[in-house]
Structure to design on (854 residues):
């Protein structure tokens, strides 16, 4: 494993991915910036509405730096982002960075929590279904995932609130106590994480199953069996790792969705998350907040994709030599 | 005592009879070959011996490997026998290995699952075994970094790591080049002698069979039609099917004489390089010279063969002639017109050139009727026939290749492999091209079907002067259907000349090694042909 060629391969692959990550970030920032710019009128009049007074408008314009040329504003914005300065929210009158950092500590743990749950459910379910293809467990698991895909997550959320919060009183029905007591924080995220995870787990289990079944019909599985491996040894030692590529792709997509797409769940459980923040910012026409949160989400998505690319290379040696 | 004793084995899958009363006897150190055409049941016989029959198989009879009947042994016991008492090598070296594990790990796995050994010892033994099968690369390599022949060596190392008494090889060299095939067969023979193994080899290639086997079993439609010692079988064939099989594999066609005429296709100092992935972080990308100063002509009505091993540039050249890929240097012209006009395919050239590919299954759209499939090239014509005329053209093309006009309404899945290749030829013929490219056009066919398709090509040449470029790895086929042959190696033409001359008196060392490596049937079969 210490051959020089291999070491170069890994570095070359990582550098290649890294450069495409930087390019994506630059393009994304340009797109987000120009979308805000092309809105009819200017951001200030958009935020204040048509009945705004001239002097309020002028005050906002100069506060937002709208009297500066376009290029200067873009670079100011990007440099600000790099330094963690996202500007001030118009409606909350506080720095956007503070707004985001409060909420990211709810949304990020929630997304990770949900993702871990969904993976923990999906992997065993998918593997079991594939190894018992056509059997009772396969049929049961496939039936369950069919329902998981079809039923929306907010329905799970409401049912869980009914059972675990109202009837059994094991969890509170909503709210977030903060991370002062990590256990309490985790506990309050449990029901939302489960409701987010169930539909994702259903999709992931189906992908895992079909990807595994594809692998089980490959020639190298037959070779493994001819060596004397049992059916399940062949599955675990040869099929699972090969089946991971499509599964990793889906996990990456799901994480991006979970981070901001949990807005309905955040609403049901009264969680102060990113989804709610962006929803409120859009309703209040607070463009500075919208712009920053969108940029943050895009940044996360690109980072997740980078991580997914690295995971591909870790799983499949063939991908390391391709750039 | 017999090493393997198969007695009256019958097999049915889903109610369909696959094997009937198959009996095989073989001793240690013996090489037994099962041969036959596709669907004869030879591969399933091998899988039955391994106890790896597909689900839903119903068997009768017995398969004794020394003192154990495979058919009555539990799956648990079979697992401990596979790899230890019997090993198997498969046809496709490209897919038979797990792409995400190193070759060393995969060989060591055979040892680890059967014996109580440390990982270190298993790796050590795996490395020794890889060396024994003649592999010179590190065990830490992944399969995708190896050539087909090297991968087949890895598969063999895996199968023999525990020195099983019986090795089964299912078409072990079919996917390999001739020179690689010769080396792998040599290795197998050597291993049999060294380990005192029994080798049950399954192949459709009679020349391979004749060279390697002590005993030959000929199968047809699930039954054994003849089983004899090699010498006895070759010199005293009894069953008509065996005779037909041997005749077909040495089939010679009747080509009309080629009358020298004006050049049609001209390839002038064509070159093409590809960039390969970097091997270090800095430094330029290495280049692969796929085509290097290729020049040759094909005249009107001339039949030219192109041979060479994988990676010699055959495919790149074919793609360049067809206008599917631009060349970086040189020029290709047909009837004086360039294949490319300013990066675009020249339609004038397209009208005069058609192609027949290897895969009779993958080269048709399954959702179109034959009628539409065959008529497809017509749209390159300026005044393509329509309505009744178009129907007539399709019927004529079908009849020209020995099918009937009513076949036009069928779908492609209703035809066998040989019929599909006829349809592919009909599709190429419909615009009456000056030049046809046959790209491994008969390589996927069984010998008897191959003989028929070759006859068809010769027939077509009788009817009208037809020029073609016949690309194949099979030297015996090229020898019979071409007037002139071109030999390629590493992107260069190393030899070209009259086919008979090149084959009987090859000048270049590479041509000599190709011809020497190709397995040959003994002369005896020619005698049978003339009877």
């Amino acid at each position: 494993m210490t051959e020089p060629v291999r070491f170069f391969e890994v570095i070359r692959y990582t550098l290649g991915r890294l450069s495409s990550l930087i390019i994506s970030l630059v393009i994304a920032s340009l797109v987000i910036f120009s979308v805000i710019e092309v809105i009819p009128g200017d951001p200030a009049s958009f935020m204040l509405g048509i009945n705004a007074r001239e002097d309020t408008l002028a005050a906002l314009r100069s506060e937002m730096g709208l009297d500066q040329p376009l290029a200067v504003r873009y670079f100011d914005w990007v440099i600000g982002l790099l330094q963690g300065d996202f500007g001030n929210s118009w409606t909350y009158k506080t720095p956007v960075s503070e707004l985001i950092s409060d909420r990211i500590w709810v949304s990020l743990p929630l997304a990770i929590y949900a993702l871990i749950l969904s993976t923990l459910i999906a992997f065993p379910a998918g593997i079991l279904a594939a190894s018992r293809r056509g059997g009772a467990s396969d049929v049961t698991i496939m039936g369950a995932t069919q329902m998981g895909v079809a039923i929306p997550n907010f329905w799970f959320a409401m049912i869980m609130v009914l059972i675990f919060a109202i009837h059994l009183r094991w969890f509170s029905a909503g709210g977030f106590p903060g991370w002062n007591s990590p256990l309490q924080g985790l506990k309050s995220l449990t029901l939302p994480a489960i409701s987010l995870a169930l539909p994702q787990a259903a999709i992931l289990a189906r992908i895992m199953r079909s990807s595994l079944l594809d692998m089980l019909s490959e020639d190298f599985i037959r070779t493994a069996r001819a060596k004397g491996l049992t059916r399940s040894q062949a599955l675990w030692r040869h099929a699972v790792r090969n089946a991971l590529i499509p599964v990793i792709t889906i996990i990456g997509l799901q994480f991006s969705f979970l981070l901001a797409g949990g807005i309905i769940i955040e609403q049901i459980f009264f969680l102060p998350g990113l989804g709610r923040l962006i929803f409120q910012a859009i309703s209040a026409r607070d463009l500075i907040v919208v712009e920053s949160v969108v940029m943050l989400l895009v940044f996360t998505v690109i980072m997740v994709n980078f991580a997914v690319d690295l995971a591909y290379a870790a799983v499949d040696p063939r991908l390391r030599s391709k750039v | 005592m017999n090493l393997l004793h198969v007695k009256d084995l019958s097999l049915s899958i889903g109610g369909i009879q696959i094997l009937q009363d198959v009996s095989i006897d073989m001793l240690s150190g013996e090489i037994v070959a099962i041969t036959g055409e596709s669907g004869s049941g030879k591969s399933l016989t091998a899988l039955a011996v391994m106890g790896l029959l597909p689900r839903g198989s119903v068997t009768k009879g017995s398969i004794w490997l020394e003192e154990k009947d495979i058919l009555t042994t539990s799956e648990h016991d079979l697992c401990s026998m596979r790899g230890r008492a019997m090993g198997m090598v498969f046809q496709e070296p490209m897919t038979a290995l797990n792409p995400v594990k190193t070759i060393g790990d995969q060989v060591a796995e055979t040892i680890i699952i059967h014996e109580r050994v440390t990982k270190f010892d298993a790796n050590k033994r795996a490395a020794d075994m890889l060396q024994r099968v003649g592999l010179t690369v590190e065990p830490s390599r992944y399969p995708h970094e190896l050539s087909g022949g090297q991968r087949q060596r890895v598969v063999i190392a895996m199968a023999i790591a525990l020195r099983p008494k019986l090795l089964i090889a299912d078409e072990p060299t079919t996917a390999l080049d001739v020179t690689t095939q010769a080396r792998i067969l040599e290795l197998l023979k050597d291993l049999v002698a060294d380990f005192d193994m029994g080798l049950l080899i399954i192949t459709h290639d009679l020349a391979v069979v004749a060279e390697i086997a002590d005993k030959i079993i000929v199968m047809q439609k699930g039954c054994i039609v003849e089983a004899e010692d090699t010498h006895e079988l070759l010199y005293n064939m009894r069953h008509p099917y065996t005779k037909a099989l041997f005749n077909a594999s040495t089939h010679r066609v009747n080509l009309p004489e080629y009358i020298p005429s004006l050049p049609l296709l001209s390839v002038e100092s064509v070159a093409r390089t590809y960039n390969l992935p970097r091997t270090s972080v800095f430094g330029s990308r290495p280049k692969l010279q796929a085509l290097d100063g290729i020049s040759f002509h094909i005249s009107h009505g001339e039949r030219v063969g192109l041979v060479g091993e994988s990676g010699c540039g055959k495919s790149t050249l074919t793609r360049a002639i067809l206008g599917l890929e631009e060349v970086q240097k040189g020029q290709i012209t047909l009837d004086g017109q360039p294949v490319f006009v300013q990066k675009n395919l020249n339609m004038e050239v397209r009208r005069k050139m058609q192609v027949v590919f290897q895969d009779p299954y993958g080269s048709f759209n399954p959702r179109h009727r034959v009628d539409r499939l065959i008529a497809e090239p017509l749209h390159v014509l300026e005044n393509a026939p329509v309505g009744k005329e178009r129907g007539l053209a399709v019927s004529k093309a079908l009849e020209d290749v020995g099918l009937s006009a009513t076949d036009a309404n069928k779908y492609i899945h209703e035809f066998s492999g040989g019929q599909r290749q006829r349809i592919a030829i009909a599709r190429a013929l419909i615009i009456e091209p000056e030049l046809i490219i046959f790209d491994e056009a008969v390589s996927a066919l069984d010998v008897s079907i191959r003989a028929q398709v070759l006859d068809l090509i010769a027939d077509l040449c009788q009817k009208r002067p037809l020029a073609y470029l016949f690309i194949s790895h099979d030297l015996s086929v090229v020898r019979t259907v071409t007037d002139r042959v071109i030999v390629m190696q590493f992107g260069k033409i190393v030899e070209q000349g009259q086919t008979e001359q090149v084959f009987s008196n090859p000048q270049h060392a590479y041509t000599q090694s190709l011809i020497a490596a190709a397995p040959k049937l003994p002369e005896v079969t020619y005698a049978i042909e003339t009877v």
About this structure: Chain B has three domains: 4-91+161-249, 258-277+284-352+434-504, 363-431.
